[in-house]
Specification:
By secondary structure, the chain is α/β, with parallel strands linked by helices. It has eight helices and 19 strands. It folds into three domains: about 150 residues, HUPs (Rossmann fold, 3-Layer(aba) Sandwich), CATH 3.40.50; about 55 residues, Adenine nucleotide alpha hydrolases-like domains (SH3 type barrels), CATH 2.30.30.280; about 80 residues, Translation factors (Elongation Factor Tu (Ef-tu), domain 3, Beta Barrel), CATH 2.40.30.10. The strands form five sheets. A six-stranded antiparallel barrel has the order 13-16-15-14-18-19. The protein has a five-stranded parallel sheet with strand order 3-2-1-4-7, with helices on both faces. The longest helix is centred in the first third of the chain and has 20 residues.
């Protein structure tokens, strides 16, 4: 039984005015992008699919299946499907940075980098060059007032990952399911008899097989990722050995391979000394963070951030924290948490600043 039928029916309404608008749908082979293509076709738009093929390590089976599904969905709809090969650019801009960040003791966020340079960079350019007026994706996000805004499904806050995209590309984007929740999208997909309506969500890192990050990093670093070093408490006591700083992250407790009278967590990763610093849970809480690579979406100059009332997220599943911003030298910012300290602020991860309407004002990458 389809839920909220009246609301969902509005997504299937045809409008003849749409026939003059051409939309390239970024097709991943998953349920979200497939549903977007079906809905836009139903609404009368001139639609074609565009899929990027990127670099993968080891078995490319999962990507091959997804690419095949994307092509089959386009065939079902009777629309053109364009395959874009971006392997070299993806390897250079996303994968190499991902590996370097881990070697430097950071925990990278490759989706934010990919969305800036590849998915909402090169893919947008190529979609427009194929005659599209707009590029549509299956992300749970909105565009309002010319800004990125959190979608209605807070469990799928993909705006966090989109926040590094270039401001000038926003006007060419559409997020047709941004005011729906995932269960509603699956209901629509089932109603439309889309072949992938029950397909599971994609894995977290598209270019690394699930559970094989260690093998991946060792492969691309010729084993340098597995360089053992000391595990040290915050008061300077050596209590064990780690198997390579690349395999740990801030806040980690399990898998440290140490015995201690009380629970210990990774509170810092020192890449220069090749050591893990571990401490108590309360030592994981920070009153501020430092970020660089600031991308402005809701203002023109970085100095404007210091006068705004903002909320911040330090990871996609984080809650919103009230904050204030100070501008530092070299285009870095300091974000002070106003109401409470934040646990496990992690270098390499993204930090996203929102206004109180849920619109993205700026984003960057945590350095401290």
């Amino acid at each position: 039984m389809v839920k909220n039928v009246k609301k969902l029916d509005s997504y299937l309404e045809y409008d003849s005015k749409n026939e003059d608008v051409t939309i390239a749908v970024a097709m991943s082979g998953g349920v979200d992008s497939s549903t977007v293509a079906y809905l836009l076709k139903k609404q009368g738009y001139n639609v074609f699919g565009i899929t990027m093929e990127v670099w993968t390590s080891g078995s490319s089976c999962s990507q091959s299946i997804d690419l095949s599904d994307a092509k089959k969905v386009c065939d079902d709809l009777g629309i053109e499907h364009h395959m874009i090969h971006l392997g070299d650019e993806f390897k250079e801009l996303v994968v190499d940075r991902f590996v370097n960040d881990y070697i430097e003791g950071k925990t990278p966020n490759p989706c934010m980098v990919c969305n800036r340079h590849i998915k909402f960079g090169r893919l947008v350019e190529l979609g427009l060059s194929h005659g599209a007026d707009f590029i549509a994706t299956g992300h749970y996000a909105k565009i309002e007032n010319g800004l990125l805004k959190v979608g209605d499904d807070l469990n799928k806050d993909q705006v966090y990952f989109l926040s590094q995209m270039r401001k000038e590309n926003i006007q060419k984007l559409m997020f047709p399911i941004g005011d729906l929740k995932k269960p509603q999208v699956r209901e629509l997909a089932k109603l439309l008899n889309i072949r992938v309506y029950a397909k599971k969500d994609s894995q977290e890192i598209c270019f690394v097989e699930d559970g094989k990050l260690s093998e991946f990093l060792n492969e691309l670093t010729d084993g340098k990722a597995s360089c053992e070093g000391d595990i040290i408490t915050t008061d300077g006591k050596v209590i064990g050995k780690h198997r390579g700083i690349s395999f740990y992250t801030i806040g980690q407790r399990k898998g440290l391979g140490i015995s201690f009278p009380e629970p210990l967590y990774v509170v810092e990763i020192d890449s220069k000394k090749n050591c893990l610093i571990v401490g108590k849970n309360e030592e994981l809480f920070s009153s501020y963070l430092i970020a660089n690579k600031i991308n402005l979406l809701g203002c023109e100059k970085i100095e404007e951030l210091k006068n705004m009332k903002l909320k911040v997220k330090t990871r996609s599943r984080d809650k919103f924290h009230s904050c204030s911003v100070k501008i530092l030298e070299n285009d870095k910012i300091k974000v002070d948490f106003l109401e409470e300290k934040v646990r496990a602020v992690t270098p390499g991860q993204g930090v996203v600043l929102y206004n109180y309407d849920g619109e993205v004002i700026a984003s960057g990458f945590i350095v401290k």
